[in-house]
Amino acid sequence: MPEPDETPGGTHRRPGEVEVPEWPSRWVGWILFAGVMMIVLGMIHAFQGFVAIFDDTYFLVRPRRLAIHLAYDNWGWIHLGVAVFVLISGIALLNGRVWGRVVGVIVAIASLILNMAFLSAYPIWSTITIAIDVLIIWALTVHGDELHQMLNKPKP
Hints:
The protein is mostly helical. Helix content is 63%, strand content 4%. It has five helices and three strands. Strands 1-2-3 form a three-stranded antiparallel beta sheet, with no helix packed on it. A hairpin with a 6-residue loop joins strand 2 (11-13) and strand 3. It is elongated, with a radius of gyration of 20 Å. The two termini are 27 Å apart.
């Protein structure tokens, strides 16, 4: 099998194959991870929202025992709203949009706070969601610029 040739644009190609862009660093995988996890996080929030709207007896405590005293219907709509923002910013992040990174951090912080307030009603999923939020915030703040550099690299 012939060795790959390096082209002037920083891509690698074997004879007869499609050019593959070279990643500026291995940390780009963390950004892709954050984007995918934001989409998963959006689905978790949507699931929590639909459960809160349609079956408020599912939760462990009554709304008066939550950190913020709201009816579960209201909590459901809040979760659905966060789900939409998380999904949109996750998709934007996977497309290399800088605003997706900024909005992603803000939405992950909002999701973290929301799940801390909702912790007594849904402890296991809220704890998992908080952990996902922390990983997303870390990936986006530490390694966020590398995906943008890779996708917007000027062509020779």
